Amino acid sequence: MDRATDFIHNYSSQIQPYLPYVVVPLGIYSVYKVLCRLIPGPHHQQRLVLRDKTVLITGASSGLGRALAFEFYKKGAKLILTARSLDKLEALCDELEQAGKSYGWKNPHKPVFRYLDLADLNGASASQLDDLRQQSIDGRTIDVLVNNAGQSVRGSCIDTPISVHKQLMDVNYFGHVAVTKNLIDAIPDDGAIVVIGSMQGKIAVPYRSAYNASKHALQAYFDSLRSEDRPNLQILTVSAGYINTGMGARALGPDGRPMGTEDPNQKAGMSPDHVAQSIVEGLSDRKTELILAPFVHKLAILMRIFTPNLLYWMMYRRGRNDPHRKME
């Protein structure tokens, strides 16, 4: 008995100095979980089941939009796909149906496609967007709106003309605002809006000023929207790092024309399929923020808060080696 008591006493004295390292994190985590329970919001809603739901995706003809189309179709959703390239959209719809037959997805809903140019939502946009609503399962409800379409740019703050800045804002910001404003009444309280932002919407990098600014604006708009009349509506903002979508080659240069060459960082980025899977999982789990990026990129967000000058210097050093700096 004395041996057992001595063993327990010795063991306790050995682990006691380490207890705070265990108890404190567990206490913080427990408080966090309690707060999550107490704070109202979409995270209290039931898991989003996508079967027999209508999903509208902008910029669906290529890249991440295309990958998302496959993920949603696999889940049994009715897809409304939009982009500027009708040929690519038509081919995508055929591929989706063929994949459904090949893999036994058993999706009874035929995907449909429509032309939509976010940079040119003029006076005809109301009827154009109303037509999109009518393509839904019940002719009036869009369960999930995916604001995905986007455009990038390469060039310095000074040399990028205002016309290019405006073009980026039209596509990456004003277009999504217009679509959301026109369709939000069609989205039920248990539906969702997915916003495909970027890590560059949180951390600005050199020689991407127009793109950075448009993504910062997009983040701010939807942060405001979720704070207004419908706080229980799920708005999932996705801040993604580099994705290997070929977007770098389509990025505009300072002259407003596509670069035509792929960005090495983009080429080494995450696969669109992986990102699409993560987004659909986060959506179904009722998340409101999703950061898909390496740890060092996430660390930059904290640096922006706690050591901004160090982050700015690091970005300056990065910019000195940026290949687009040599174009000036």
Short account of what is shown:
With about 325 residues, the chain is of the alpha/beta class. The protein is about 50% helix and about 10% strand. It has 12 helices and 7 strands.
Describe this structure in words.
The chain is an alpha/beta fold and 328 residues long. Helix 6 (162-183) runs parallel beside helix 7 and helix 11 crosses helix 12. The protein is globular. It has a 7-stranded parallel beta sheet, with helices on both faces. The chain folds into 2 domains: 2-37; 48-327, 3-Layer(aba) Sandwich (Rossmann fold), CATH 3.40.50. Helix 4 (86-103) links the parallel strand 2 (78-83) and strand 3. It has helices at residues 2-15, 19-38, 63-74, 86-103, 125-134, 162-183, 209-225, 247-250, 264-267, 272-284, 295-306, 308-320, and strands at residues 54-57, 78-83, 112-115, 144-147, 192-196, 234-240, 289-292. It contains 12 helices and 7 strands.
β-strand percent reads: 5-15%
Measured as a percent range, the helix fraction is 40-55%
| Assigned CATH superfamily of the largest domain | NAD(P)-binding Rossmann-like Domain
Using the coordinates above, name the CATH class of the largest domain. Answer: Alpha Beta
Q: How many domains make up the 3D coordinates?
A: 2
Strand order of the largest sheet: 3-2-1-4-5-6-7
Give the biggest beta sheet: 7 strands, parallel
Structural shape:
globular
Number of helical elements? 12
Element-level helix/strand string = HHEHEHEHEHEHEHHHEHH
> In the CATH hierarchy, what is the architecture of the largest domain at level 2?
3-Layer(aba) Sandwich
The CATH topology of the largest domain: Rossmann fold
Query: In whole angstroms, how far apart are the ends?
Result: 82 Å
Give the beta-strand count.
7
* Sheet/helix structural class: alpha/beta
Low-confidence stretches: none
GO cellular component, one term: membrane
Function: Putative oxidoreductase.
Keywords: Oxidoreductase
Pfam families: adh_short
